[in-house]
Amino acid sequence: MRQLFSPKNLSAKLKSLKNLPNPFCDARFFHAFLALFALNFVVLLWTHAAVLQFKYDAFFFASFAYRIIMFFVTYIALICIIFWLKVRALQNLLLGALLLASGVCYIVEIFVLYVFATPLNSYFIIIALETNPQESADFLRTYLSLKLFGIYALSAFVVWAIYRLKAPRHFASLKWIYAALFLLAFAIHLAGVRPATPTLRHSDMLYNAHRAINKALKSTLAFMKEYKNLNAKFDALAADLQVQKSSEPIDNIVLIIGESTQRGKLGIYGYALPTTPRLSALKAKEPENLLIFDDVISSQGTTSSSLSQSLTFASQDNGVKNPHEHEHERQHQREHKQWHEYLNIIDAMKLGGYHTTAISNQETISVFGNVAATILARADEAIFINNGDSFDLVKHDGALLPVLDSILTPPPRKIRA
Q1: How far apart are CA 286 and CA 275, in angstroms?
Q2: The whole model's pTM is what?
Q3: CA angle at 309 for the pair 369 and 213, rounded to the nearest 5°
């Protein structure tokens, strides 16, 4: 043991460490690291400006500096690990994968930051997975702009310019710079003074994307697990309710849910083009037969979450009405009572004596369509005209109309001879 830690052996070990090959003297690793740093620098700076609402105070600079330090610590270590694999083909493969993944994340992050002034998060992942290709194309056509393409073009030019630089032949101070940054990051964590907010906990795009996707998938998988029990819960809930049937029922009640409809594009709300000719005519001739709501917003931003409250009696307050309950008791109920523990519109109509028919152009069942599919399947008749998956665009919404007409048209009377 004495010989192992003798000054002579220690000096030899330090000398061998000094002679370790430096990955940044290899043009591939030098260019890749600088390109990754440039892309992450832009996203981190923009993220800080958006999240902290352009407040360039001490916290802004401390938080940004901390994340740059963490980027250097993690990515220099990652670059060294890939370099020390020695197999050139494997090195190129891993560097290419790292650059490609970061490039994709950069495109997405810049788009989200430019359009919505917020970094990528699980909310956007869920929206993307709920949306079919046609809706995605319409969405992109709405938000893509020349300024956004200009940002991408400028970024591509910067990366091109980086790859025109020559790699240094000697970079002996790299290990000492890395050691200093590592010790600084370690001291920050040890002292518990890491500057962070809930939306600023990452130091690179890949980790942020991983967190967002992981959180979105966890939420979805939890819902899929719960999905098996939803119908049983609805059955139990409906069985415990006593509803007096209407003495004068309306012959036909038609509820239309138009996904992705914007009031700003509807003529009845003042849009210049006549996109709602029949409703506009009804408004002009029989205004007493048309109620127009002009002060309504969705309780949620995603289709699945919004329908869980639109098609049930659940709400943002989860239906807590007793004013005498203590606040912490109401909060406890809000946190633990789920949307499927409330009566839904289909079961409510059935309890009221109506024969219910549900017609849908959405998929029968999918990872992100469980709310609508579960509730609509409770109807006496459930007709799903689109039997493909989320990417099946063969049938459009117009295919619903003949099915609706056949249901609303009374059968012909039989004439006795």
Answers
A1: 19
A2: 0.64
A3: 45
What's 289's DSSP letter? G
Query: What is the SS3 assignment for 364?
Result: coil
Q: Is residue 363 classed as helix, strand or coil in its secondary structure?
A: coil
- pLDDT of 14 reads 46
Tell me the backbone φ, ψ of residue 393, rounded to 5 degrees. -110, 20
Angle at alpha carbon of residue 163, lines to 159 and 43, rounded to 5°: 25
Higher per-residue pLDDT: 278 or 55: 278
Tens-digit pLDDT profile for residues 311-332: 888 887 764 444 444 444 445 4
Task: Give the Cβ contact number of residue 127 at 10 Å.
Answer: 18
pLDDT of residue 392: 39
pLDDT at 367 over 60: no
Query: Would you state the structure tokens that stand for residue 365, as one six-digit string?
Result: 């069942």
pLDDT of residue 139: 78
Cβ contacts of residue 55 below 8 Å, gap of 6+?
A: none
Is 357 within 8 Å of 380 (Cβ atoms)?
A: yes
Average pLDDT, the chain: 80
CB atoms within 10 A of CB 60: 19
258 in Cβ contact with 400 (< 8 Å): no
